[in-house]
Amino acid sequence: MSTAYLNAILAREAVDTSAFSPVRQVQTIIAPVLQRWANRFLLSISPSGSFAKGTANRSGTDIDLFISLHEDTPETLKDICGSLFNAIAGAGYAPKRQNVSINATIGGFDVDLVPGKRQTAWTADHSLYRRKADTWTKTNVTTHINTVVMAGHQRESRLLKLWRNQKRLEFPSFYLELTVIAALHGRQSQDLAQNVVKVLEYLRDRFAAARVVDPANGNNVISDDLTDTEKQAVRRLAEAALSGNWSGFVQ
């Protein structure tokens, strides 16, 4: 019964990621604005984040767009984010600053725009500005997507994201996805309810002390993105979920 309940939630929250998905029109709508903003330094605009990984929910951000800029882009990463914010605002949208992205409603969809400066022409590695720490980090969006897709735990990640959102927890999506992968590492069971229980047990027992590193950059410690207080909030709510029922876990 519990797995049936969780599958019904997933069906309700399903996102169309096909080539004909209506949300893909966002890229066409915003492309002229981004082309004017980046000028000749724009390399590409491509879906990333949860949409590309298969971990998106209908009630979450509709799409993340990664904006790849040429390594010769003269502005600093901080200035790039500032000028992108201004360009989106100047186009008539109402942008919001996030840690590594600019959020806006475009064409009726909730969109996160992530600008990155390519490091060299021979790699897909990019430098991103991290607003909270006022610093930059190296990462590789393709590696992030492949890591999550190859692990095959998208259903569990989607349910944990719904739980996070409904409980108003601070828990960055990629950090959450890597945590789900760690919790289910080596586990062969396809029982969705049992797998979610395993993840909640991991959050209760091991999460707060676990060191999580960016698979694209060993120097980027993703677990540092949450404070100890924020990690303890995740732990406490995981413990509460384990003592309750599925409707209390996610609705």
Give your account of this protein's structure:
With about 250 residues, the protein is α+β, with helices and mostly antiparallel strands. About 45% of the residues lie in helices and about 20% in strands. It folds into 2 domains: about 1-15 and about 145-250, Orthogonal Bundle (Poly(a)-polymerase, middle domain); about 20-140, Beta Polymerase, domain 2, CATH 3.30.460. It contains 10 helices and 9 strands. Strands 1, 2, 3, 4, 5, 6 and 7 form a 7-stranded mixed β-sheet that branches. A two-stranded antiparallel sheet has the order 8-9. Strand 8 (about 215) and strand 9 (about 215-220) form a beta hairpin. About 35% of the residues are buried. The mean pLDDT is about 95.
Order of helices and strands: HHEHEHEEEEEHHHHEEHH
Classify the beta-strand content into a percent band: 15-25%
CATH class of the largest domain: Alpha Beta
Low-confidence stretches at least 5 residues in length (pLDDT < 50)?
none
- Number of helical elements: 10
Dominant shape: globular
Average pLDDT works out at 93
Give the number of domains.
2
Fraction of residues in H or I helices: 40-55%
Total strand segments = 9
CATH architecture identity of the largest domain: 2-Layer Sandwich
Distance between the termini: 15 Å
Radius of gyration: 18 Å
Q: Which fold name corresponds to the CATH topology of the largest domain?
A: Beta Polymerase, domain 2
Based on helices, strands and strand pairing, what is the structural class?
A: alpha+beta
- Biggest beta-sheet profile: 7 strands, mixed
